[in-house]
Amino acid sequence: MRTIPELVRAAVDDAGSKPWLFSHDTELTYAEMLARVERAASGLRALGVGRGDRVLVTPRNTPEYLLSWFALMEAGAIQVPINPKSSEAEIAGFVHQVDPALVVTDQDKWPAAPRLELSGTGYYRLRRDYEQAELERWRRELRSECDSREELHVYFRHEPQAPAWAARMLEL
What is the CATH number assigned to the segment(s) 4-170? Predict the structure, then answer.
């Protein structure tokens, strides 16, 4: 029995240059899809997401969410999909129940933005378009939180650059 990542690689070997996905503003070949999936899986691993880790996802019908599903499998993580129409309270309840290593969601769906406190763990949702001064304020706050907590989770809006943004934030 082969895994889905193995099946994807076999498809790339057979049809790498052929179209895999057409979307409103995206067209990807099998080879391009695999390259994006491997890059995203590498970013997930760099964030500490690995085999058996649960990742809470509010999936939508977009190429980004489809690619994130493949990337999670490539990293060995377990996608825990929830209804993207869930209320803030429901999402907070899922975060508490699932205890995810990461949350993949849209900026408008993250509850209690930008900070959520659950069971002594601080969860932050940050966006990409901070001015430098505002970003520095967040770095100071996160550094303070790191000193006083065993765990701190920082989430970015799901985009290919998110792992790099997270790595920059961790350079406290």
Answer: 3.40.50.980
